Amino acid sequence: MAEILVTFAAGASYGMTTVVVGQPLDTIKTRMQGLPSASQSSGFQVAKDLFFRENVLGLYRGGLPLFVGGAFMRSAQFGFSGACKSWLESSFGKTQNRWMGLFDWQVVVAGIAGGIGRGIVETPTDFFKTRRQVEKEWTLRHVLDGTGVTLARNMSLFSCFVVYLDISKQACKAGYVPSFLMQPSGDGLSPFAKGAICANLAWLTIWPLDVLKTQRQSGNYEGQSTMQLLKTNLQNGRLFRGVLPGLLRSTIANGSSMVVYEFVQTNLTRTFQLQRKDMT
């Protein structure tokens, strides 16, 4: 139990760090995806317009609910996935045969569990963040808008993240990864590389779901279902809208946050003489 609590604590540090260093680029990305008036603007133009109108504080629009909720959100994703993986291993033993020699079914299932845990917390907090970023009023009946696609995005995102993380460990041990990207032990990526590379690959894999999630939560596309928005974005070529500021944010935020996460996780585990139960 103590090991899982440590994972939750490390996850909270990850979440708070992500908001502090990544919120400005997230605001730019969200406005590009969910604000019709910015649907044709570049990320630079969106940032410039907002900065000249509201200064730096404008770039941190929606940061407060995500700062508070982000701690619980990341705690949930790392804690739920770690607990699920531990239970699967104790119930079925460690996976012996990987699908296509790469994929561990237990990692996939644990990633989905982490995504569900994150999604439960993130659905309302991300709604408040998005509405602040696109400057749209809301009422209580709107709070759960986009719940389905938000949960789908999070389950896909975190399961992809832990799968890429697992594959990166295999690649490091096989000698396919340059030494400057690895930990001194050589059994995995360094914290910053782990957070940046694996998160970016996961985001690229599921990016269209993020666009749909933002549009459903923004309130600017009321009356349109997720499937209708999917069809429209596909026709307009906007399924990867905001991907450049999004990946830049992911590199900086997830790389930095993983450094903090590893510091907290490692030191708490050592201090209380525990065994790590997380999946990183």
Bulk shape: globular
- Gap from first CA to last CA: 18 Å
**What's the rounded overall pLDDT mean?**
93
- Amount of beta strand: under 5%
Discrete helix count:
8
| Helix-strand makeup class | mainly alpha
Helix content: over 70%
State the major sheet.
none
Oligomer: single chain
Structure summary, number of beta strands? 0
Q: Could you name the ranges where pLDDT drops below 50 across 5 or more consecutive residues?
A: none
Order of helices and strands: HHHHHHHH
Rg estimate, integer Å: 19 Å
Question: Would you mind describing this structure in some detail?
Answer:
It contains eight helices and no strands. Helix content is 73%, strand content 0%. It starts with a helix and ends in a 9-residue tail after the last helix.
List the helices and strands and how they pair.
Layout: H1 2-34, H2 43-59, H3 63-92, H4 105-133, H5 147-173, H6 191-218, H7 226-236, H8 243-271
Task: Give a summary of the structure in a few sentences.
The protein is mainly α and 280 residues long. The chain has helices at residues 2-34, 43-59, 63-92, 105-133, 147-173, 191-218, 226-236, 243-271.
Task: For the structure shown, list the relevant keywords.
280 residues, mainly alpha, globular
